[in-house]
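[agent] plan:
  1. take the single chain provided in the ticket
  2. run structure prediction with default settings
  3. attach structure tokens to the ticket
  4. add a short note for the reviewer (M.T.)
[agent] executing step 1
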Amino acid sequence: MGAIMPIIKKNGVEIYYEEAGTGFPLLVLPGGGLNATVAGLKNHAFNPISEFSNKYRVIALDLRNANDGKTIGPLEIDKTWDSFTEDQLTLMDYLGIEKFMVLGFCIGGPLIWNLLRKAKHRVTCATLVHPSGFTSSHPDIYFQNNISGWIPNLIQNNPKITLDMATRFLNNMYTKRADFVFTVDRDFVRNCETPILILPDDIPAHPYATAMETALLAPNSQVSLYPWKENDRKIELALRHISVFLSSYSQSNSIKRRDNNKTSNNSLTSQN
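[agent] step 2 finished; step 3 output follows
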């Protein structure tokens, strides 16, 4: 079955997404910083659409106003991360999806934490693949990367957006949030019961220390083998870990686990 590639329009935003497969929904957030697009998934270590659409309904969307992307909307300077999260939830609502799993690369890490902050009751599990995060050794890396790699085309393609507006957007998104994972604090992660799987990396834009700190704080976290991108065999092992993790927290299996727990508790009660 080929991928479906429509655009939905709501509140002045055009959201481009692709989906393939059937089953419990898996929302995919591509990597690539503010230039994250579905098309860019082909350049990732693996493409979740091709890897998981044989078992799940896999849905991916372009980040709003990404260069070469098709999701277009206002540059909401005072909302930054929340504007992207609203696009994700708008898409899930449009598709009639209440509960879903989420997998995100790079910028998808902070976006997943923000999604959990806004709608954790809707997310059954989250997989963070080489997530972005703050590191004191490169405190302005995301600001500088986007000044050169995102803003020029953004301004050229959107005459209403000025350099000052785009710079304020980056400052609000990164500079004023220069700590941890940008979107939530450590207490939030410490109290987040959502099952989390982290596949760490160790480059300035994907700091290992920050990824591992979240893994150690989150009460229901798992970590893949590391390093996992060195060769095809290690990627295969990482994919196997993701597959088992997703299978455990798709809705049908979650219901089975709850029923099994109830049965076990009833048995214990009867024995007592």
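[agent] step 4 note for reviewer: Residues 2 and 203 are 35 Å apart (CA to CA).
[agent] ticket updated
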